[in-house]
Amino acid sequence: MQKISPCLLLNDQAEEAAKFYTSTFKNSKIKAVTHYGDHGPMPKGTVLSVVFDIEGQEFMAVNGGSDIEFTPAVSMMIHCKTQGEIDEMWDRLTRDGGAEIQCGWVRDKYGLAWQVVPEILNDLLTKGGPSKTNSVMNAVVKMKKLDIATMQKAYDAG
Description:
Layout: E1 7-10, H1 14-24, E2 28-35, E3 47-54, E4 57-63, E5 75-80, H2 83-94, E6 99-100, E7 105-107, E8 113-118, H3 121-126, H4 130-140, H5 148-157
Parallel strand pairs: 1-4, 5-8
Antiparallel strand pairs: 2-3, 3-4, 6-7, 7-8
């Protein structure tokens, strides 16, 4: 068992959200579903929690029966190897009610914030000194979905 894992509190969409996430990411599966008994904020038999795994990271989604919303103050970061992977994850997370934000951020249809970033981003920001960092960040802040070629070009010019 992981020492730390995210727990997502939803109103009544825990199972639906878990199915969405496990269909969005490869190497994912639902591991367990529990239901409310006689006591709780939701009717008996309603899904209480869903434990699921995405790429080896365990998550739990809980139906809490409240209208608490996610905030972008906490996000899930997806490190992508290629532009094709960025494009695919971007499309999957923004479809059916998701929203593009800025600088590689999206909000899925449940309101959870995700950062869809290339694995190379950290190197582009840290390995070339302040001039290259500023050049890359200047390019990034102008984008919604991150484009590796554009960031590499900015790095090379920096």
